[in-house]
Design brief:
Largest sheet: 8 strands, mixed
Order of helices and strands: EHEEEEEHEHEEEEHEHHHHHHH
CATH superfamily of the largest domain: NAD(P)-binding Rossmann-like Domain
Radius of gyration: 19 Å
Strand content: 15-25%
Number of helices: 11
Length: about 300
């Protein structure tokens, strides 16, 4: 299968690495100024491996793909809307952004088939050409609209280190991930600590629990879907990781505040509920937000 990937950030490279191992032919679209000779992946089980792929800077090179994965961050989607609409309408698009705001963006696209993914892996760019796979987790995918006869073949023939799970309720998975990100990302960024330190240090764990309690009060139906033990387990399983928001902050890139934190605050507001701690973190981080690159 010929698969195009728009964006060569950490998640885009992660997809390219494992999809290429499953015999898919990968083409990355990057900005011309970011053209590199090759991309690489590192994980705990193997040494640095080259990612077999082509690297292009013109979206016209993707017009014969069987699938195109959009791996840029939400706040850069509007910048490539015209390019996406220039693609043949029959090519399925898979969006793998964090948060919830990109769902509204999809209404503007003309493509016949649009798929959404929720990525639960840990990944970080070591440098401009190398991604580190820091934590294994499933990627849930589901249809926003349309159909794609090859989706089962795409999801099932994949590396065990990169499981893809087809779900009929992808929006619920996006909401769950956004809630988890709201609990972990802002606090790790304000405190400049790893995920594990949120449960290892009493003060941070106390704040985390208070944030969780206020979120469950606003979204009562999520008490069983997202128990406190699952939040603690995620921090333990990714204890050495620095959250994506913290990494963006440390590298002077725009943090994904509105699509993650802002979206959950808005959903609470619609219920006439407030999330005081999360709102405070949102306002603090909004003042120091910066804009970064979008193709990786």
């Amino acid at each position: 299968m010929n698969i195009g990937i728009i964006g060569a950030g950490a998640v885009g490279l992660l997809f390219g690495a494992y999809l290429s191992e499953s015999s898919h032919r990968i083409t990355f679209l990057v900005r011309e100024t970011n053209i590199t000779k090759q991309f690489y992946i590192e994980n705990d089980t193997e040494k640095t491996k080259q990612i077999p792929c082509e690297i292009v800077s013109d979206i016209a090179e993707l017009k014969k793909m069987d699938l195109i994965i959009i791996a840029v961050k939400y706040h850069h989607l509007t910048q490539i809307e015209g390019q996406l609409n220039s693609l043949p309408l029959h090519i399925p698009l898979l969006f793998i952004q964090n948060g919830l705001s990109h769902i509204a963006f999809l209404k503007h696209l003309k493509q016949e088939t649009i798929i959404i993914g929720s990525v639960l892996h840990g990944a970080a760019k070591k440098n401009n050409s190398t991604v580190q796979h820091l934590g294994i987790g499933p990627t849930y995918i589901g249809f926003y609209k349309g159909e794609w006869n090859s989706i089962h073949n795409f999801a099932e023939n994949i590396n065990d280190l990169f499981p893809l799970i087809l779900t009929p309720d992808i929006e619920q998975m996006l909401v769950k991930k956004a809630m988890l990100n709201c609990l972990i990302n802002p606090l790790t960024t304000i405190a400049c600590v790893t995920n594990g330190e949120l449960i290892e240090k009493h003060s941070y764990k106390s704040i985390l629990r208070s944030m969780y309690d206020e979120m469950m009060e606003a979204f009562e139906e999520w008490k069983e879907r997202l128990p406190w033990d699952e939040v603690v387990a995620l921090c333990e399983n990714t204890r050495l990781n620095r959250s994506s928001m913290l990494k963006d902050f440390e590298n002077g890139r725009m943090m994904e505040l509105d699509t993650i934190v802002g979206a959950i605050l808005e959903r609470a507001k619609q219920r006439k509920q407030t999330l005081p701690i999360l709102q405070t973190f949102y306002l603090l981080l909004s003042e120091i937000n910066k804009e970064g690159d979008y193709y990786g």
